[in-house]
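User: Second chain of the day. Same drill as before.
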Amino acid sequence: MSDSIFGIHGAALELRSQRMGLLASNIANAGTPGYKARDIDFSMALRARLDGADSDRAADGATLYRVPVLPSLDGNTVEMATEQTAFAENAVAYSATLSFIRGRVETLTRAMKGD
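Assistant: Same format as last time:
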């Protein structure tokens, strides 16, 4: 039912949440030797989700290792500027998607009340 009410936005919100967790994990492991930064290709994951895969499977299939611009000597591929930029962009998109869903819920609530 939520797919028909929220359309693509419900799936997008789930995937953006998963991506935010992955990016936060990258940032948290910035000092861990050998840690390999990963990211979710959002468009690939969303396509898989809309084709019927569940959110976890869609996100797992679209998770890729990040190729660093300047690799570190300890093998860690986290570049803080890249991670922070990706996290901020994802947070803005998450907020916009959430606002759309909130607006849809408010519209449905007003319709049920007869306003």
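The helical segments are 2-6, 8-28, 42-50, 55-61, 80-113.

User: Great, on to the next one.
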